[in-house]
């Protein structure tokens, strides 16, 4: 308190000695030491400027700086056939979704197939891709090439995977049961798979009979199978209470 009174006395000394020589403009808001304080009306534009700066920084990060983040999703159906030489041929639609802002390139994809309960497996490599053309129809791109997904972009490819042509009978899908499949993808520069998508399918006795017949006849006919442990989006009828529940949920959105 004594220090404060001393400071005030020093500030008043020039006025006491020469009352008419000094004209000092004192801010409306000052503390005891005489330092200027921000008025309430000035806080609002300053706060708005700070919030705008934060929003701009976040927007810049999300649109320009955020690293690429790629998601790999296998299609709901897979088509299986055997080539004339006997090798397995699997056609699978694949979606690559980049949630980041930096582009990412996939150098390699593969399909790992395992009979459920069997620790061993077989790795199928891609033969060629189909892309979606301007008309919305599938069109053949070229031989299997790297796939680039730019920031915020979705790239969909129909990929044909095939077993070894040198030893076609090394692996054939001619046994009834459940098969576990793992779709693998390698980002540019990676030596190990960077992402994967797991699903399974069931080969029934009827499916196996068709495939074996096609092999004997050297036919390129295919069997389309639905993933058995992935989605449950089958078309089906709904009861009145189910329809009502959907409408109530949509009303809350």
Would you write up a description of this structure?
Helix content is 26%, strand content 34%. The chain is α+β, with helices and mostly antiparallel strands. It has two domains: 64 residues, no CATH class; 157 residues, Immunoglobulins (Immunoglobulin-like, Sandwich). Strands 1, 2, 3, 4, 5, 6, 7, 8, 9, 10 and 11 form an eleven-stranded antiparallel beta sheet that branches. It is elongated and about 90 Å long. The mean pLDDT is 77.
Short synopsis of the structure:
The chain is of the alpha+beta class. It has helices spanning 2-17, 40-65, 205-216, 240-252; strands at residues 70-74, 77-82, 88-98, 104-115, 122-132, 138-143, 147-149, 154-162, 177-187, 195-203, 223-226.
**Total number of helices:** 4
Helix content: 25-40%
| Structural class computed from helices and strand pairing | alpha+beta
The beta-strand count equals 11
Shape: elongated
**Uncertain parts:** none
How large a portion of the residues is in β-strands, by DSSP E? 25-35%
CATH architecture of the largest domain: Sandwich
Mean pLDDT: 77
The largest β sheet comes out as: 11 strands, antiparallel
CATH topology of the largest domain: Immunoglobulin-like
User: CATH superfamily of the largest domain, called what?
Assistant: Immunoglobulins
What is the chain-wise order of helices and strands?
A: HHEEEEEEEEEEHEH
Radius of gyration: 35 Å
């Amino acid at each position: 308190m004594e220090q404060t009174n001393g400071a005030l006395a020093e500030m008043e000394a020039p006025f006491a000695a020469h009352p008419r020589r000094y004209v000092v403009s004192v801010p409306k808001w000052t503390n005891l030491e005489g330092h200027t304080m921000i008025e309430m009306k000035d806080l609002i534009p300053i706060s708005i400027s700070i919030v705008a700066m934060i929003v701009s920084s976040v927007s810049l990060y999300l649109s320009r700086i955020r690293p690429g983040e790629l998601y790999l999703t296998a299609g709901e159906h897979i088509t299986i056939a055997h080539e004339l030489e006997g090798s397995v041929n699997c056609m699978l639609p694949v979606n690559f979704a980049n949630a980041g802002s930096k582009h990412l390139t996939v150098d390699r994809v593969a399909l790992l197939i395992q009979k459920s309960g069997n620790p061993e497996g077989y790795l199928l490599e891609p033969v060629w891709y189909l892309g979606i053309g301007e008309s919305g129809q599938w069109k053949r791109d070229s031989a299997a090439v790297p796939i680039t997904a730019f920031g915020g972009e979705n790239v969909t490819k129909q990929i044909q995977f095939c077993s070894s042509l040198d030893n076609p009978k090394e692996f054939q899908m001619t046994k009834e049961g459940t098969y576990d499949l793992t779709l693998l993808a390698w980002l540019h520069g990676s030596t190990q798979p960077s992402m994967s998508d797991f699903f399974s399918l069931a080969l029934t006795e009827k499916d196996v009979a068709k495939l074996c017949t096609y092999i004997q006849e050297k036919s390129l006919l295919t069997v389309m199978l639905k993933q058995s442990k992935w989605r449950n989006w089958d078309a089906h009828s709904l009861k009145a209470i189910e329809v009502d529940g959907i409408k109530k949920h949509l009303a809350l959105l």
